[in-house]
Design goal:
This protein is an all-alpha fold. It contains 6 helices and no strands. It has a single domain, classed as Methane Monooxygenase Hydroxylase, Chain G, domain 1, CATH 1.20.58.
């Protein structure tokens, strides 16, 4: 009777493993939204826990069959053979579910990482747009133009590492058919805005450099003119002090 019960337990265990394999490993999932992906991750975590919890039952079966084999070798031998099959299938099921759970967790982590990089680069683009707007309608003053140019250049020196990560993470997910429509839409919008703002910022940088050069040249001309006027004022003052007749002065002084 004990052998019959153990045989029944082994059959039930094998049936449960077959159902678990069908439910968790043979479904053809399509992850078209973050919610679907997140639900799949949580489901596989529960599946892993469920399968691992069966380890206690498997161990009890193993111990009982060993005890029976020690008492009744003939019955125990047949059960031991069936047990080995169940143990092998159980270990295989555990490994496959662990692997799929790990893969889905990695995919979810990849998606979250992509969102984080997109947030960082979007914040940088917002900053760049703000700096570009601040360069509009600047007064023709050396300090104002120079400060605006340095501020814009400091933002443009932003490294390209984050954009590389965005491209690689996005392509990895798209190649796996994971959230491909959503990611493609996000990347297309991000890249379009990046290209537009980058070109606008570079154009403003060039315009500011030209404006700065013009302001410097104008300032230099004004400085030379002021120096010449100061020298002329000094000479005229000297003439007046010495009571020099106008007709005795150089033509430019007259």
């Amino acid at each position: 009777e004990k052998a019959v019960n153990l045989k029944k337990d082994l059959a039930e265990m094998q049936e449960w493993m077959t159902q678990a394999e069908e439910e968790y490993l043979e479904k053809d999932f399509e992850y078209k939204s973050p919610e679907e992906l997140e639900n799949a991750v949580e489901e596989m975590k529960r599946a892993k826990e469920d399968v691992l919890q069966k380890e206690v039952r498997v161990k009890i079966l193993k111990d009982n069959i060993k005890m029976l084999a020690a008492k009744v070798p003939s019955s125990g031998q047949d059960l031991a053979t069936e047990l080995n099959v169940v143990l092998e299938n159980y270990q295989l099921l555990c490994n496959r579910i662990r692997g799929k759970c790990h893969t889905l967790e990695e995919v979810w982590s990849c998606w979250i990482e992509l969102l984080q990089y997109l947030d960082l680069e979007t914040a940088w683009l917002n900053n760049l747009e703000e700096r570009v707007q601040m360069t509009e309608s600047l007064p023709d003053k050396l300090d104002a133009v120079n400060d605006a140019l340095e501020s814009l250049e400091s933002v443009l020196r932003h490294p390209a590492d984050n954009r590389t990560q965005i491209r690689e993470l996005g392509q990895t997910l798209i190649d796996g058919g994971i959230l491909d429509d959503i990611i493609s839409e996000k990347l297309e919008a991000f890249n379009a805005r990046y290209e537009e703002l980058s070109h606008l910022a570079v154009s403003r940088q060039i315009a500011l450099e030209q404006q700065l050069q013009t302001v410097r040249e104008t300032d230099h001309i004004l400085q030379v003119l002021q120096e010449n006027l100061a020298e002329l004022d000094r000479q005229l003052t000297s003439y007046l002090t010495d009571r020099v007749d106008a007709f005795q002065m150089p033509q430019e002084a007259q």
